[in-house]
Amino acid sequence: MIESLPEARCADSRAMALRLAALSHPARIEILKRLSASRCCSCREIVDHLDLAQSTVSQHLKILVEAGLVRFEADHQRSRYAVDHSALASVSASLTDLVNSCCPGR
Fold first, then answer.
1. Which DSSP category does 52 fall into?
2. What are the tens digits of pLDDT across the range 59-100?
3. Residues 59, 60, 66, 70: is their CA dihedral positive or negative?
4. Which of 26, 44, 47, 78 lies 20 to 30 Å from 99, alpha-carbon distance?
5. What are the residues whose beta carbons fall under 8 Å from the beta carbon of 18, sequence distance 6 or more?
6. What is the pLDDT of residue 88?
7. Alpha-carbon distance 25 to 102, whole Å?
8. Domains of the chain
9. How do beta strands 41-42 and 70-75 pair?
10. Is 79 exposed, middle or buried (0-12, 13-18, 19+ CB in 10 A)?
11. Tell me, what DSSP letter sits at residue 40?
C-alpha cells in the first residue's frame, strides 16, 4: 500500500508535473528558446521565427504561462512574453532532486 503523502509534497509534485507537461511539446521548447534569446517578445515576433500559425503559438504560450514558465504582460495593444528564469531553474532543481533520490550514487 502506498502511504499518503503530506499535502505540501503533493502540491509540489503537482506543480512539477504541470511544468514538465508544459515542456513536453517540441514547439513549446522552441518558444522558450526564442524567448530566452531576447528579453521579451510579442506573439507576432515568435511567429516570425517559427513555422507555426499565430493561433498555435498563442495556445502554446497560454500553456507555458499557466504552468508558470513564462510571464505575460499587456503592453498597449500587444502582449509581451518573457521566460520566468527562476521557475525554469526550479524545474531543473526538482528534476535533479528526483533523479538523485531515484538513482543514489550517480
1. S
2. 999 999 999 999 999 877 778 999 999 999 999 998 898 888
3. negative
4. 26
5. 66, 67, 68
6. 92
7. 25
8. 26-90 (1.10.10.10)
9. unpaired
10. middle
11. -
* Angle separating helix axes 26-36 and 54-66, nearest 10 degrees: 80
Length of the chain: 106
54, 68 in Cβ contact below 8 A? no
Residue 81 backbone zone (phi > 0: left; psi -120 to 50: alpha; other: beta): beta
DSSP per residue, 63-97: HHHHTTSEEEEEETTEEEEEE-HHHHHHHHHHHHH
The reported pTM is 0.84
Distance CA 49, CA 92 (A): 26
Go through 9-19 and write b for each residue having 16 or more CB atoms within 10 A of its CB, e for each that does not: eeeeeebbeeb
Cα(93)–Cα(25) distance, integer angstroms: 20
Which grid cell is 59? 495556445
Rounded-to-integer distance, Cα 49 and Cα 26, Å: 14
